[in-house]
Amino acid sequence: MRAMTSAAIQVTGVHRVFTRKKDQVVALDDVDLTVGAGEFVSLIGPSGCGKSTLLRLVADLDAPTSGSIQVFGKPARQARLDQDYGIAFQQAGLLPWRTVSGNIELPLALHGYPKADRRSRAAELLELVGLSDFAQHHPDQLSGGMQQRVAIARALAERPRLLLMDEPFGALDEMTRERMQNELVRICAETGAAVLFVTHSIPEAVFLSDRVVVMSPRPGRIVDVVAVQAGGLGPSQDRTDAVRDAESFFHSVARVRELLHGAPAPGARGVEAR
Amino acid sequence: MTGSTTLTRRVRQLCLGLLGVLLLAALWDLYKAFGPEAGVTVGEQTLVLPRTTDLAMPHTWEMLQRLTEPVTSARDAPSALSAVLDASGFTLGIAARGWLIGVVVGLVLALLMSRFRTAESALLPWVVLSQTVPLIAIAPLVRRWGSALSFGGFEWTSEHSVSVIAAYLAFFPVAVGALRGLKSPDRTHVDLMTAYGVGWWRSLVSLRLPSSVPFLLPALRLSAASAVIGTVVAEVSISLRGGIGRMVVEFAQSAGGDPAKAWAPIFGAVLVGLVAAGAVGLLGLALRPFALTEPVR
Ligand SMILES: Nc1ncnc2c1ncn2[C@@H]1O[C@H](COP(=O)(O)OP(=O)(O)OP(=O)(O)O)[C@@H](O)[C@H]1O
Ligand SMILES: [Mg+2]
Questions:
Q1: Residues with CB under 6 A from ligand 1
Q2: What fold is seen in the domain A1-84+169-274?
Q3: Which domain holds residue B231?
Q4: Which of B70, B135, B210, B264 could bridge across to B77 with cysteines, CB 3.0–4.6 Å?
């Protein structure tokens, strides 16, 4: 029991079938996944393979058809109500009528933190994402990358031990994206949070993660898990730009690509998935 | 964006508006001066432009001048202007009450429909259908039902009937606009609220209501206009004295001997409409922080 509670996320035998009229879409088929405390795990796979679905299940924004999901040893619903995770989506989703600072304070305000605490926490987070000068701006005065950084700051507002991120850098250009990746590594090192990160970019997944989970579509399954850290890149909190040129980085990128393109023998599934 | 440029823009809009009014007046009098006495007809019968006689088209300045003269030939009759202003105030008061009732009813309906899917499918068709019933048909009904009401010292008057009829027109744009607005937050925002574990009420206050403002403002404006029209028409069909509606009818009857007089209450109706639109405009200014567009993504 102790071993289970130490994991940030424990997904066991999860199926998710969407039924619309007579159509049935098996979005997730028998998925098992464990994310340890402080571990950075990426989900990668072709469009429609169920990455967002899996993330939404963990966040309890949706319920599995069968199987169980535990977050810090509790049912996902309890974890959501306890605010055990912070979440960020592909769209920043800032409220346009609130200032940048007001947006970061939103979860704190909704959960009844006193005003002074909210202010100081927002200032701290703005410092962390390098937007202190924009505290009183409105979202429509910020670039897409800046909005995304605000959304990440908002996700961190309540110091969650787990971050759920669905393609948060998807809409950014390559340069901003790499800078944001470096920032995310730094933020994770500072907060020690576990991360479940959905992406379409192989280098991004490898650069950020301790492990990369490769998925296949129709039905959505976990093909294999690439252990980037064990592959020689070191823990995800210590990554720097130098990693992007390391040989083991290219090795892991090649391995993920191989899994995505070439269909591996079905027998391999699940063996390494734990 | 800055204060001074908005001010100059406002002033320019105002000037353009006034210019439009002047242009219309000029057009009127030019046609009256140069148009054919018998009007312009197409074929044998169809009159496409009016006769230019003083009876059909009084001079614009005569209309204005008429406002300063006594309203009737009675000894101590007030000026036509003050009679029109009184009637306008009366009508505006009833319209404002009708508008308020309509806005409250519309908002409540929209909240119900956005909260419960069954409420939406049960109510929305009726909401739409309600607007196809002609006012003339419901006016006597409202009066009859209203006069059957009595509780405490409250007595139902014709004024109440007119307000209710105005509300009947006014609630519709608000119900439809607010419903669209309450449903407008995108999935990311809704998911975020779920993730924060807040209930329906908190997410209404912090997400749905603010994001419905851009939909609500035009709806409120439309509903103010509907309330004014509803009030004037209901005044006529219920024969309520004191407002613009009856005045239009009464003054039109004297048009034979005093053609300019018939136009006085029409100016009153325009005035009521302008004041109503202005009031909603002020409300819009107060709500402007929420009318910001969505951030670029
Ligand atoms: N609410 C829903 N109703 C019906 N089907 C859905 C729903 N959400 C997802 N699906 C289906 O489930 C499958 C997986 O969708 P999901 O959004 O998880 O994919 P994804 O891996 O996140 O794709 P992308 O990379 O494009 O974001 C798709 O086939 C999709 O059509
Ligand atoms: Mg997705």
A1: A 18, 20, 25, 27, 47-53
A2: Rossmann fold (3.40.50)
A3: 59-71+80-290
A4: B70
